[in-house]
Specification:
With about 600 residues, this protein is α/β, with parallel strands linked by helices. About 45% of the residues lie in helices and about 15% in strands. It is globular and about 90 Å long. It binds phosphoenolpyruvate and magnesium ion.
C-alpha cells in the first residue's frame, strides 16, 4: 500500500456506470522491466539457452489459455487476436537471433531477448503504416510477457493475466480493451480521462461493471495493492475507506437490494404510463453475447445493435458470412421482437487497427460511420448483404449512423437496392420490405428532419453525438464535460423538431443515446413525444420503473416547461424534481457520503 495514503481519501470523477465495488486496486502502468546484462561462464550457456526456450513454451501455454478463456466468454473473433501473438512467438528469425547472442556473447537470456525485441519494435514503430505500428504494440505486449516469464514476475499491465478480482485504475482504457475485460476479475474500473458517453463508458454499462472516469491523475496517485471503494453512482473512488464509510455503503447495499426486488418485478411488465401510453423499450447491444441480457431485462427487442464491435479486436474484416451468422443469431433469438441493426460506425473513438485508417486531427468530425462506409463500398456491401440475408430470419430493421444530409441517405439506399438486386439474382431470400431508418445525431439532420422523414421508416436520435456536435463538446473529453449538457435548450429544440417532423410524416422516433437510459430524463423525452427508448439492458429496469409511475400529460407538461426555460441546469433540476417525486425509491441509493 502506498505510504502517503494512510487515511481515507476521496477522488471525484464522472460516474459512468452504476454500482459499488471494493477491493484491491490494479494500476495499469506500462510495465518497463529492468533488464541487466549478465556475463555467463562457458558452462552456463547451454542451460541459459534452454531457459529461454522454456520461457517460450511457458508463454505459449499462457497465451493459449487466455485465448481459450476469451473464446469462451467472448466470441471467437476476440480470441483471434492472440493468433498474431502466437505467430510472433514462433518467429524463427527472432528466436535464432536471441540464441545466437546468448551463445556468442555469453550473456543472459533476458538481455539477449530484450535487445533483439527492442530492435524489432523500433523498426515496426518507425513505419508509416498504421497496421504495422499496431503490430509493434503486439510485439511489445508479447515481449513483456516473455520477459515477465524469464524474470519470473507477473506482468501487471496485461489484463489477460488477471487471476484475482480487482479494480482497474489507469489513465485510459480503449473501447477494444474494455470489450475484452473479464467480468469475473474486474470489479470495476476508474480512469483519469473520459466522458459519460465515450464508448469505453458505454461498454462499462453494457458489461454492467461499475465505472468512474475523468478522475484526473488518480492513476499516478494510487499504487497497485491499495484498497479502494468505487462508487459508480456518485462518481467517486474512496481509497482506504474508514469503517464509517464502509458502514454507510453497507446500508446503501441494503437499500439497493430492496430496490433490486422492485425492479425485478417490473422486468416483464409492459412499459406503459399510468394513463395508458405505451413506450417501446428496447436494448442497445454490441454482439450476440448480449442476447441473454436483452431477455432478462424484458426489452422489447433491440433498438441499437452497434455492429462495429464485430470489426474491432481482430486482425481482419469479418466476412459477409460471419456477419450474417451473428445477425441471424440475434434476430432468431429475439423474433418476433424487432432488432435494429445500425450499419458500421467506425471512426471517432472506435478504431479497427487492421483497416489502416490514417490518424486524423478531428476524428469525430472526420472519416466516420456512413462517410467511411460510402467510401468503402465493398466493405459496406458485405455488411448490407449480411443484414439483408439475416432479414429473412427474423424481424430486422436497419439504420444508418451519422446521416448529415439527403445525399448520404440516397447513396446508401442506392447501394441497398443494388445488394437486393444481387440477392434476387442469386435466389437468396431477404425481407423485401426491410425497414430502413436514419439516426439523427448531427444537427443538420435534425434541421432537415422534414426532408429525411419522407424517405425513411423511422428515426433514432443518437443523443450522444447530437449533444457533442451541437454543443461542440467532445464526448470523450472530461475537460469539456461541463459543457456536454443533455438538457441544453438547443438539444431539446432539436429533439422536438425531429419528433414533430417524424410524426407529421407518419413515422416513429426513438432515442438510443445514453440519455434514453437515464430515469431522470426519460419522462422529459416521453413528454417531448419520443415513441421508443433504447438503452443498455442493465439500465432498462429503472427506466421502466419510472415510466410505469408517470402520466403522459404530466410528462408533457414537464416538456412544455423545459422548452420555455433557458438554463440547462434549471431544466435538469426540474427533471430531477419530477423524477424524485414520481419514483423516490430510485433515488435513495444515490448519495451515501457527504464528503
Ligand atoms: C449516439 O450517438 O447517441 C449513439 C447511440 O451512437 P454511438 O454512441 O454509438 O455513437
Ligand atoms: Mg452516435
Amino acid at each position: 500500500m502506498s505510504g502517503q495514503l494512510k487515511g481515507e481519501k476521496v477522488y471525484r470523477g464522472i460516474a459512468v456506470s452504476t454500482g459499488v465495488c471494493r477491493g484491491r486496486v490494479l494500476v495499469l502502468h506500462h510495465t518497463r522491466h529492468v533488464i541487466a546484462r549478465r556475463e555467463l561462464a562457458a558452462d552456463q550457456v547451454n542451460p541459459e539457452t534452454s531457459r529461454f526456450e522454456q520461457s517460450l513454451v511457458h508463454t505459449r501455454q499462457q497465451i493459449t489459455e487466455v485465448q481459450r478463456r476469451v473464446a469462451e466468454t467472448m466470441s471467437s473473433a476476440e480470441a483471434d487476436i492472440f493468433d498474431a501473438h502466437l505467430l510472433m512467438l514462433e518467429d524463427p528469425v527472432l528466436i535464432e537471433e536471441v540464441i545466437k547472442t546468448i551463445r556468442e556473447q555469453k550473456v543472459n537470456a533476458e538481455f539477449a531477448f530484450h535487445t533483439a525485441a527492442e530492435k524489432y519494435v523500433a523498426v515496426l514503430e518507425a513505419v508509416e503504416d498504421e497496421y504495422l505500428r499496431e503490430r509493434a504494440a503486439d510485439l511489445r505486449d508479447l515481449a513483456n510477457r516473455i520477459l515477465a516469464n524469464l524474470l519470473d514476475v507477473k506482468d501487471q499491465s496485461d489484463l489477460r493475466h488477471l487471476s484475482e478480482p480487482c479494480i482497474l485504475v489507469g489513465r485510459d482504457l480503449s473501447p477494444s480493451t474494455t470489450a475484452q475485460l473479464d467480468k469475473k476479475f474486474v470489479l470495476g474500473f476508474a480512469t483519469d480521462i473520459g466522458g459519460r458517453t465515450s464508448h469505453t463508458a458505454i461498454l462499462a454499462r453494457s458489461l454492467d461493471i461499475p465505472a468512474v472516469v475523468g478522475l484526473k491523475n488518480l492513476s499516478e496517485e494510487l499504487e497497485t495493492g491499495d484498497y479502494a471503494l468505487l462508487d459508480g453512482y456518485n462518481g467517486t473512488v474512496i481509497v482506504n475507506p474508514t469503517d464509517q464509510t464502509l458502514f454507510e455503503y453497507g446500508q446503501l447495499a441494503k437499500i439497493k437490494a430492496s430496490l433490486e426486488e422492485k425492479l425485478v418485478e417490473v422486468q416483464h411488465q409492459p412499459a406503459i404510463t399510468l394513463d395508458g401510453r405505451q413506450i417501446h423499450l428496447s436494448a442497445n447491444i454490441e454482439d450476440q453475447n448480449d442476447i441473454e441480457a436483452v431477455r432478462t431485462h424484458g426489452a422489447e427487442g433491440v433498438g441499437l445493435f452497434r455492429t462495429e464491435f464485430l470489426f474491432i479486436n481482430r486482425d481482419r474484416l469479418p466476412t459477409e458470412e460471419e456477419q450474417f451468422q451473428v445477425y441471424r443469431q440475434v434476430a432468431e433469438a429475439l423474433t418476433p421482437a424487432p432488432v435494429i441493426i445500425r450499419t458500421l460506425d467506425l471512426g471517432g473513438d472506435k478504431f479497427a487497427s487492421h483497416l489502416q485508417i490514417a490518424q486524423e486531427m478531428n476524428p469525430f468530425l472526420g472519416w466516420r460511420a456512413i462517410r467511411f462506409c460510402l467510401a468503402q463500398p465493398e466493405l459496406f456491401r458485405a455488411q448490407l448483404r449480411a443484414i439483408l440475408r439475416a432479414s429473412a430470419t427474423g424481424n430486422i430493421k436497419m439504420m444508418y449512423p451519422m446521416i448529415s444530409g439527403l445525399d448520404e441517405l440516397n447513396q446508401a439506399n442506392t447501394l441497398v437496392e443494388k445488394c437486393k438486386a444481387e440477392l434476387r439474382a442469386e435466389n437468396i431470400p431477404f425481407a423485401e420490405n426491410l425497414e430502413i431508418g436514419a439516426m439523427i445525431e448531427i444537427p443538420s439532420a435534425a434541421l432537415i428532419a422534414e426532408t429525411l422523414a419522407k424517405r425513411v421508416k423511422f428515426f433514432s436520435i443518437g443523443s450522444n453525438d447530437l449533444i457533442q456536435y451541437t454543443l461542440a463538446a467532445d464526448r470523450t473529453n472530461e475537460k469539456v464535460s461541463h459543457l456536454y449538457e443533455p438538457t441544453h435548450p438547443a438539444i431539446l429544440r432539436l429533439i422536438k423538431m425531429t419528433v414533430d417532423a417524424a410524426h407529421a410524416n407518419g413515422i416513429w422516433v426513438g432515442v438510443c443515446g445514453e440519455i434514453a437510459g437515464e430515469p431522470v430524463l426519460a419522462p422529459l423525452l416521453i413528454g417531448l413525444g419520443v415513441d421508443e427508448l433504447s438503452a443498455a439492458p442493465a439500465v432498462l429496469d429503472e427506466v421502466k420503473y419510472i415510466i410505469r409511475r408517470i402520466r403522459l400529460n404530466e410528462a408533457q407538461a414537464l416538456a412544455q416547461t423545459a422548452l420555455r426555460l433557458e438554463s440547462p441546469a434549471e431544466i435538469y433540476a426540474r427533471c430531477v424534481e419530477f423524477a424524485r417525486q414520481t419514483a423516490p425509491s430510485l433515488f435513495e441509493n444515490k448519495a451515501p457520503i457527504s464528503t
